[in-house]
């Protein structure tokens, strides 16, 4: 089926629990940072993952990147099961998936110049021809608009601005022609003035290469511009998944609604409209609430149901899933 061929990545019931030990050795439970996450990502599709700080977004990213080995569930990429990867397939996977993280300076080796930083992944992945290396390095720099190229090749990361550093990180992430880019809060540490530029750049690269993108952010005001679909994460779980328009204009989950109300208004005179998600802090991931994890903060919680039983994913509209008992079909 065409639908199937279109699938780039899928996660089924993915789980990443970090064991916690008291005094460094006595087992004392686990932080359930990712706890039963399922989704699909199509080729060329940008999916945003949103949610409050600590809900497990970066852990999800790092599990998808095979930096963490999941404690449960499975990930498939281009039809192959990650658990079954040989070391050769793992190298292939690392070429196919690029990573852009929050802190560009921390992501760049301080004692390598730009040329060396971009040459390294080529060498590691068997591009030995000097001419080809030079061409790909220069094409990469042009693509992220670090031009004229000659001005940048000999620079070290600390000689670049934050925006330029992030451009370099992006060039490195795409130099091996990946099929998927995982961008974890790619602009949150940059000056407000360069954020839009970097998002535009990512958008252009995504279109030009038909890249799948997993865009992690807690800034809901940028997702409409950047993504096709949104997944809302709360306390280690996905609570709502939908196309961007449907989710932003008509959100279903009470948590998504609260999150949308919490977006600061860009107009300074309307700054009063900022409201944090009510109902206190997100729960502990070591000891999450029973039933629906959002029920202690939810103004619509149904007594006798929400605190007892975890809601399955209901489908109130085509392609729109929500894990909330309010949407159960009677
Ligand atoms: N390597 C680790 N070992 C133990 N616990 C971890 C590890 N990485 C993350 N955690 C815990 O997992 C939970 C989720 O953290 P994570 O960084 O994934 O959240 P996040 O949604 O990315 O938050 P933020 O928006 O602040 O970046 C937190 O409680 C965190 O302390
Ligand atoms: Mg994070």
Would you kindly provide a written description of the structure presented here, covering whatever features stand out?
The chain has 330 residues and is of the alpha/beta class. It has one domain (2-327): Rossmann fold (3-Layer(aba) Sandwich). Helix content is 30%, strand content 25%. The strands form two sheets. An eight-stranded mixed sheet has the order 6-7-8-3-9-10-12-11. Strands 2-1-4-5 form a four-stranded antiparallel sheet. The two termini are 33 Å apart. The structure holds adenosine-5'-triphosphate and magnesium ion. Residues 18, 31, 33, 51, 53-59, 218, 285 line the site of adenosine-5'-triphosphate.
Count of DSSP H/I helices: 11
Q: Low-confidence stretches at least 5 residues in length (pLDDT < 50)?
A: 269-274
Total domain units? 1
Just name the CATH architecture. 3-Layer(aba) Sandwich
Number of strands: 12
- Estimated structural class: alpha/beta
CATH topology call: Rossmann fold
Rg over C-alpha atoms, rounded to the nearest angstrom = 21 Å
Short key terms for the protein model shown above:
eight-stranded mixed sheet; 30% helix; Rossmann fold; globular; binds magnesium ion; alpha/beta; 330 residues; binds adenosine-5'-triphosphate; 12 strands
Concise synopsis of the structure shown:
This protein is of the alpha/beta class and 330 residues long.
Sequence-ordered SSE layout with sheet pairings:
Blueprint: H1 2-5, E1 7-22, E2 26-42, E3 46-50, H2 57-64, E4 72-77, E5 80-81, H3 87-96, E6 97-100, H4 104-107, H5 114-124, H6 130-143, H7 162-174, E7 180-184, H8 192-209, E8 212-217, H9 223-226, E9 229-234, E10 237-243, H10 244-249, H11 254-261, E11 314-317, E12 320-322
Adenosine-5'-triphosphate is lined by residues 18, 31, 33, 51, 53-59, 218, 285.
């Amino acid at each position: 089926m065409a639908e199937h061929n279109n699938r780039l990545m899928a996660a089924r019931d993915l789980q990443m629990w970090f064991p916690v030990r008291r005094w460094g050795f006595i087992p004392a439970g686990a932080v359930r940072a990712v706890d039963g996450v399922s989704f699909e990502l199509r080729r060329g599709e940008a999916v945003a993952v949103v949610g409050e700080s600590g809900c497990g977004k970066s852990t999800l990213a790092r599990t998808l990147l095979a930096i963490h080995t999941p404690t449960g569930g499975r990930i498939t990429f281009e039809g192959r099961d990650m658990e079954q990867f040989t070391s050769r397939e793992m190298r292939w996977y690392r070429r196919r998936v690029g990573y852009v993280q929050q802190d560009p300076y921390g992501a760049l080796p301080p004692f390598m110049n730009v040329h060396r930083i971009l040459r390294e992944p080529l060498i590691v992945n068997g591009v030995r021809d000097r001419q080809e290396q030079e061409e790909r390095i220069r094409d990469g720099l042009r693509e992220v608009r670090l031009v004229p190229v000659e001005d940048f090749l000999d620079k070290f990361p600390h000689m670049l601005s934050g925006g330029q550093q992030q451009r370099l990180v992006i060039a490195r992430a795409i130099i091996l022609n990946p099929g998927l880019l995982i961008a974890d809060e790619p602009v949150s540490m940059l000056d407000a003035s360069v954020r839009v530029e970097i998002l535009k750049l990512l958008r252009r690269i995504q279109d030009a290469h038909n890249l799948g993108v997993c865009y992690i952010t807690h800034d809901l005001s940028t997702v409409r511009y950047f993504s096709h679909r949104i997944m809302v994460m709360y306390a280690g779980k996905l609570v709502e998944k939908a196309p961007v328009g449907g989710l932003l204009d008509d959100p279903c989950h009470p948590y998504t609604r609260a999150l949308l109300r919490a977006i600061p208004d860009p107009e300074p005179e309307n700054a009063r409209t900022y409201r944090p998600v009510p109902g206190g802090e997100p729960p502990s991931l070591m000891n999450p609430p029973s039933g629906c994890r959002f029920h202690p903060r939810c103004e619509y919680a149904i007594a006798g149901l929400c605190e007892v039983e975890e809601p399955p994913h209901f489908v109130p509209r085509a392609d729109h899933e929500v894990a909330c008992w309010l949407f159960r079909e009677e």
